[in-house]
Amino acid sequence: MIPRLRMYRSLDHPPLLPIFPYCLLPQFTNVIIRCNALPGSSFPPLTSRKSRKGDGLRGNYFLFAAAMGFGVAAALSPHRTMMIFGALLVFSYLSFKNRSLLLLVALVFMGAGAAVWAYIVDEQNESVLHKEVDTIHGNIDDVPEMDGDRVSFFLQLPEHNERVQVFARIVDEETLPAFADLSPGHECTIEGEMRAPRPARNFNAFDYRTFLYEQRVHWTFHHVQEEGDMTCRAIAGAGLTSVKQWRHTGIRFIEDVFPNEIQGLAMALLFGERSHMEADTLEAYQDLGIVHLLAISGLHVGLVSGFLFFLFIRLGISRERACEILLIILPLYALLAGAAPSVLRAVLMSCLVLLCIRFRIPLHPADGISFAFIGLLLYNPYMLFHVGFQLSFVISFSLIASATIFARAKTRFRQFLLVSILAQVISFPLIVYHFHTYSLLSLPLNIAFVPVVSVIILPAVWMLFILSIISSFLSSVWLLLLEKMVAVFHFLFIYVHQHSGLILVFGQPSGVWVILMVVLVVIAAILYEKRRKSVVFVVGFLIAAAAFQYFIPYLDAQLRVTFIDVGQGDSILIETPYQRGVYLIDGGGAITFPQENWQEQEQQPDPGRQTVVPYLQSLGISHLDKVIVTHGDYDHYGGLFAVVEAMKVDTVLYPHTDIEENSEVGRFLMHAQEQGAQLAFVHEGMGWAFDAFAFHILHPTLDGGGESDNDQSIVIDAHLYGTRWLFTGDLEEEGEKRLIRDYPELQTDILKAGHHGSQTSTTPSFVAHLNPIAAVISAGESNRYNHPHPDVIQTLGEAEVQIFRTDEQGALRFYYQGERWQGETMIDE
């Protein structure tokens, strides 16, 4: 027997400390110095020993940008002391190298000022609304997203000076056109229910509450058409609202005119809107490391501003007037493109360049990106923790700092190759930290398709969009040709993605590992620039560090059992030490009910793809020894379609029952076989064991488990370090009686309550027979079945059984440490 489990709330994984400041290590300084010393720079080299007194502040704008980053991180990140201490060390060293006490003082003041500013912004980021509000009135603040019978948008409430995320459900097809006509600027009065945003319910998962908080949104408002009134009317747009309305009109125009295959791509390239990309295609872009091709960035802004500048000059407009016109157009373009961090960075840098051209002021790119960095953090300090912001600035700054390397390249192709390699290498630690995977095909695919997108697809989409406005007839043939080209590319990406894609799973690395990787990349770049042979050894260390992160799960000696929160369903992960055995019991599955065609959503919920696979990858798991499908209910196997596609699965276990009547689960089993898994139909008496771990199958019997599908569930009696766990699937009363009858000595320490705590399971006699210390109930938050049933809770309570529930506590993780079981939950009770 074991003592009552000690449970701890899992600390939210802290956001990665901003990588940009870590570039300011002493070794990297010399790279930046050379950038400032390039022809055209108005500032002397930073290491100049002959600098006159008072020159310490000149040419050091990138240091002030770094101080800004350190200050914001010190105010908003959980590692304040480390950030402050690290900043002082770095800046003291750099100031000593420049022999400038004034520089050190200025940097300290800059960092302190940034910290105070971020702290003030964060303190003011609070809500004046409350949960009892049932009617809101305001203006739609963005382009509404509509998928089937679901509509979502942000509503700006003038009375409270606050934004709310609105979710609306349509129950009447006749009102569908009215919802489809919603656009930014519409004035709406809505009745519904105010709710706090959902926090992350699984370990290492996306935190929607934090995501909204960083957008200064504190509430979600839920409207159901039949349960409350919603009235909206169009009003004349002005200022920013007009620009958002233009963006909305452009997106709707693409929906009406462009072929289906290229609608999502065109919206992404023209307006920064990816929600219309097909799920399989977008996932392929993301996992293969080419999703940036869909993002509007410096490439797009450069092409647009370059084309317009050339056009203005050809029309006889002076360079000064052309610059002034572009200074007006580019900020509007940033808003039309969705104002993502990469767009804002590119537009800010372009505007700085235009200002310098207009007023004949020399500006080095390192200074331009530093001013853009400072400006964006002054506007919104939370951007520092945005993955797009981090990637955009880290890659851009690295390319600027490596100008000398690129200048040595003898051909354009070699320059492009070096740029691609550096961008991939410098972004690798960030990508692994945020997404936990990396595709070895990322570099070759980028080399192959970046020119295609830059030279062919992007200009073609722009030209055809303009041509379609003039005459849809003239553009139709060219749109068809573009559709065929894009269809070929997308087919290739999806095929490669589905057939491995050489995707490596690294798991969730620590911030220390990320910093180490950045330092090694910096040193390697410096040695390569100096043509030192020792660069080979540094590259070797880089590969070794990456390999260490890849293999670290196999060095983990801890035993863990995790109940993943998949909503109304089951999914249990068992990890034995050193990953000698990794087993997944069920994978959840969102049950859908019959709907009319207009109600069906393109983006269907899939807990396997959205929850289970990301969690496994965050642990560095790419291989499962066994996947156990307890029975043929969709809420147990539906999510496993994505699992067997993303993971290498050795064996899929299914109860020894007739599956002819359930063609859907049969389709899954065939799909698992196609993905390379072996099938095993199991029954009582079977099992497996190694070391101190044994798994015995107690149910179903060889001649069948029971009349209901639930009573045919696989029941596993697991012995883990002497502690007994009983996993019962959806076993109901009949199956429980059979276990009591056939196993009179059966007891367990931890019981997985059957059928999500339904009244038909976990009977008093079964609980009394097992005499468990703890019971885990896997049920969906606010599920329509009202699981777990009060009678089950009462039964467990009267037996003094400690109860854990995924509907209230989110994911539950139990781990064996110090010869005892402990645990942690995602959500406080």
Q: Percent range for helical residues? A: 40-55%
Q: Which architecture of the domain at 556-593 and 604-825 does the CATH hierarchy give at level 2? A: 4-Layer Sandwich
Count of distinct strands: 26
Computed structural class: alpha/beta
Largest beta sheet: strand ordering: 1-26-25-12-13-14-15-16-17
Structure description:
This protein is α/β, with parallel strands linked by helices and 829 residues long. Among the domains are: 10-124, no CATH class; 135-235, OB fold (Dihydrolipoamide Acetyltransferase, E2P), CATH 2.40.50; 556-593 and 604-825, Metallo-beta-lactamase, Chain A. Helix content is 47%, strand content 16%. It has 28 helices and 26 strands. The protein has a nine-stranded mixed beta sheet, with helices on one face. Strand 21 (723-727), helix 25 (733-742) and strand 22 (750-752) form a beta-alpha-beta unit. The longest helix has 29 residues, at 442-470. The model is unreliable at 6-58 (pLDDT under 50). It is found in: Cell membrane. One of its GO terms (cellular component) is plasma membrane. Its main location: membrane. Keywords: Cell membrane, Membrane, Transmembrane, Transmembrane helix.
Using brief descriptors, characterize the structure shown.
OB fold (Dihydrolipoamide Acetyltransferase, E2P), 8-stranded mixed β-sheet, 829 residues, 28 helices
What does the secondary structure layout of this molecule look like, with pairings?
Elements: E1 6-9, H1 26-36, H2 61-76, H3 80-98, H4 101-124, E2 135-140, E3 145-147, E4 150-157, E5 162-169, H5 176-180, E6 187-191, E7 193-195, H6 208-213, E8 217-224, E9 230-233, H7 240-257, H8 260-271, H9 279-287, H10 298-314, H11 319-336, H12 341-359, H13 365-379, H14 387-401, H15 403-408, H16 412-435, E10 437-439, H17 442-470, H18 472-498, E11 503-505, H19 511-529, H20 535-551, E12 559-563, E13 572-575, E14 582-585, H21 607-618, E15 623-628, H22 634-637, H23 640-646, E16 648-655, H24 663-674, E17 678-682, E18 687-690, E19 693-699, E20 715-720, E21 723-727, H25 733-742, E22 750-752, H26 764-770, E23 774-777, H27 790-798, E24 802-805, H28 806-809, E25 812-817, E26 820-825
Helix pairs in contact: 1-19, 2-3, 2-4, 2-13, 3-4, 7-8, 9-18, 10-11, 10-12, 11-12, 12-13, 13-14, 14-16, 16-17, 16-19, 17-18, 19-20, 21-23
